[in-house]
Amino acid sequence: MHSKDQICHDDYQKTADWLLSQTQHRPKVAIICGSGLGMLADALKLQDSFHYADIPGFPQSTVQGHAGRLVFGELKGKTCVCMQGRFHMYEGHSLSKVTFPVRVFKLLGVETLIVTNAAGALADGYCNGDIMIIRDHINLPGLAGLNPLNGPNDDKFGPRFPPMSGVYDQDLRRLAKDICKSLDFSQFLQEGVYCMVGGPNFESIAEARFLHKLGADAVGMSTAPEVLVASHCGMKVFGLSLITNKVVKDYEDTEKVNHEGVLGVSKMRSETLQTLVTELVSRLDINNNTA
Ligand SMILES: O=P(O)(O)O[C@@H]1C[C@H](O)[C@@H](CO)O1
Ligand SMILES: Nc1nc2[nH]cnc2c(=O)[nH]1
């Protein structure tokens, strides 16, 4: 059964064809920028950029800290496409809309997806400003049946029942750790499990304790659906969480998290994150081509 939100292959293809007609760039890498981390896109050379509102079929971004632009260009000589602002379920988008750009990227020829997000720390040893390489995720909405792959499977993209083990590429994680060592970033580097919740509220203390007990090191409101869809269609995936706050797990703690604080910490570390992602992209084993 097709729901009203069902998007068909032709819809993705139309958007991809439109983009291919507007730019000479042919990216092999896509980067999705999290809250406050969009400045990474500004570093692209030879830019062609498009406001989401001008791209046929694209959803609109409504969150502060997400500019709503798709930027094509070169990062250290490697052609990339960068989402300066992503879509979240809590904005009212269906998960097929949230992940729409990922399938468009696949049709553009993208082979590697890099995702970044802002997240709250559940792990005790984490500090604000830490960068966490995502080793694995817990897709809480997905476990409860909110899944972008719900509905008829599109075999042109991938299988009906995709595995989710080993989704965060081990070689890319290893490479990122080597880069962090050489850049002297190791003192604020972590590797852990990201848990996606629906949001838009931050966690209650009982919820935070529950997620921590489940094995989550950080919690946020994005990433898992995009990663799931990218992996389903055969892309390599690498993910980074910027730890913007500690999630309150103690009833004596009167600290309250807010989005402005999240954006503040993102800003403080965005240059570091940009350096890490740029270095990673420059060392990817890919060849450029243009139209
Ligand atoms: O897009 P991301 O996951 O970086 O955004 C996080 C989660 C919420 O959208 C917002 C909360 O401050 O930041
Ligand atoms: N759910 C959730 N998302 C976040 N994004 C940034 N910080 C947080 C947090 O503490 N919780």
Automatic annotation (TrEMBL):
- Pathway(s) the chain acts in: Purine metabolism; purine nucleoside salvage
Q: Which UniProt keywords apply?
A: Glycosyltransferase, Purine salvage, Transferase
Q: Which residues bind phosphate?
A: 35, 66, 86-88, 118, 222
E.C. number(s) listed in UniProt: 2.4.2.1
GO annotation, biological process: purine ribonucleoside salvage
As one GO molecular function, the record gives: purine-nucleoside phosphorylase activity
Q: Which residues form the Nucleoside phosphorylase domain?
A: 28-281
Family matches, as InterPro entries: Nucleoside_phosphorylase_d, Nucleoside_phosphorylase_sf, Pur_Nuc_Pase_Ino/Guo-sp, Purine_phosphorylase
For binding a purine D-ribonucleoside, which residues are annotated in this chain's numbering?
203, 245
Q: Which reaction does it catalyse?
A: inosine + phosphate = alpha-D-ribose 1-phosphate + hypoxanthine; 2'-deoxyinosine + phosphate = 2-deoxy-alpha-D-ribose 1-phosphate + hypoxanthine; guanosine + phosphate = alpha-D-ribose 1-phosphate + guanine; 2'-deoxyguanosine + phosphate = 2-deoxy-alpha-D-ribose 1-phosphate + guanine
Q: Which family does it belong to?
A: Belongs to the PNP/MTAP phosphorylase family.
Task: Explain the purpose of this protein.
Answer: The purine nucleoside phosphorylases catalyze the phosphorolytic breakdown of the N-glycosidic bond in the beta-(deoxy)ribonucleoside molecules, with the formation of the corresponding free purine bases and pentose-1-phosphate. Catalyzes the phosphorolytic breakdown of the N-glycosidic bond in the beta-(deoxy)ribonucleoside molecules, with the formation of the corresponding free purine bases and pentose-1-phosphate. Preferentially acts on 6-oxopurine nucleosides including inosine and guanosine.
Q: What is this protein called?
A: Purine nucleoside phosphorylase
Q: Which organism is it from?
A: Anguilla anguilla (European freshwater eel)
